[in-house]
Amino acid sequence: MESLERELRRGTLELLLLRILADEPTYGYELLSRLGKRSSGRFHIKEGTLYPVLYRLEDAGLVVPEWNQPARGAARKVYRLTAAGEERLVELTTEWRGFSAAIDTILSGQEPEEEER
Amino acid sequence: MESLERELRRGTLELLLLRILADEPTYGYELLSRLGKRSSGRFHIKEGTLYPVLYRLEDAGLVVPEWNQPARGAARKVYRLTAAGEERLVELTTEWRGFSAAIDTILSGQEPEEEER
DNA sequence: ACTATATACTTTGTTTCACTAGGTATCAAG
DNA sequence: CTTGATACCTAGTGAAACAAAGTATATAGT
After folding, report:
1. How many CA atoms lie within 13 A of B8 on its CB side?
2. By the 8 A CB rule, do B15 and A1 touch?
3. Tens digits of per-residue pLDDT, B5-46?
4. How wide is the angle at C-alpha A79 spanned by C-alphas B3 and A48, nearest 5°?
5. B57-75 burial, b if ≥16 CB within 10 A, otherwise e?
6. Any CB–CB contact under 8 A between A114 and chain B?
7. Can you give the distance from the CA of residue B56 to the C1' of nucleotide C7 in angstroms?
8. How many helices (H) does chain A have, and how many strands (E)?
9. Which chain B positions have a beta carbon within 8 Å of A96's beta carbon?
10. Residue B89: left (phi > 0), alpha (psi -120 to 50), or beta?
11. Are A68 and A75 in contact (CB under 8 A)?
12. Are the Cβ atoms of B14 and A1 closer than 8 angstroms?
């Protein structure tokens, strides 16, 4: 019985990263702080969590990386959303809304009106 | 990259089962159909998923089982929420609300006001 | 009597994902 | 020249949901 947060985060990371990348192409390290900021400090993931997700997104063709050498500092791998990535973002957002609505319905103790016959 | 639903369900099962059991002590097999009904058919978990969760809840002292022999048919293991289970339900509900609110904020593209300094 | 179906609980093994805990490399500041 | 911040990468671990079995009882059909 682990922390709920850890388990809840499962699957949502992909959605959240796509959402942030939709605003603006961003590199990995920066994604960490943006995610932290936008969630009011709730989602503090580590690099060892982040990069594997980015590779999955890349393998799935949802994002494309481009190496970027800033004037000073280490090189950055900037990820940009592809068309497929935008589609996926819409898909996942819809799925999330349906899912969380279903949970909320159960938590509120309401029986949904007659379905599933 | 599996289905989002599968991953999202992670961690929420415990919460949902506790919620259903809070209404009324229920046995495993019945929980399956109640969960399906209350989620409008969205959450169709299998027995191989359900029972291990119930055992975790039992080990954690959140529910207690009682064998019940109905007039006809196979014996039923009816689970009842403990006081600890009720507390945990409140805890998890709060955590869920905070979590889903955080996701919604990020999805809506709003920056939360200055926090996390 | 035999078979199938529905009910009801159990167990084993697999997969996926987030995490821990390291590692490499570059650059600025002291 | 060492420390710390930035930035990326990887191997190994663990927990949860799942698939796919199995056991047992009772009812219905032939």
Report:
1. 24
2. no
3. 888 999 899 999 999 999 999 999 999 999 999 998 899 999
4. 65
5. bbeeebbebeeeeeeeeee
6. no
7. 23
8. 5, 3
9. 4, 8, 103, 107
10. alpha
11. yes
12. yes
Q: Using CB atoms within 10 A of its CB, is residue A47 exposed (0-12), middle (13-18) or buried (19+)?
A: exposed
| Residues 44-103 of B, Cβ under 7 A from nucleic strand D | 45-49, 52-53, 56, 72-74
Sheet holding A63-68, edge to edge: A26-27, A76-81, A63-68
Domains and CATH numbers, chain B: 4-108 (1.10.10.10)
The Cα angle at residue A109 between residues A104 and A114, in degrees rounded to 5: 90
Radius of gyration over every alpha carbon of chain A, rounded to an integer in angstroms: 17
CB B96 within 8 A of CB A110: no
- The encoded tokens of residue B24 equal 């009324």
The pLDDT tens digits for A55-93 are 999 999 999 999 988 777 778 999 999 999 999 999 999
φ/ψ of B25, rounded to 5, equals -60, 135
The encoded tokens of residue B92 equal 């998890």
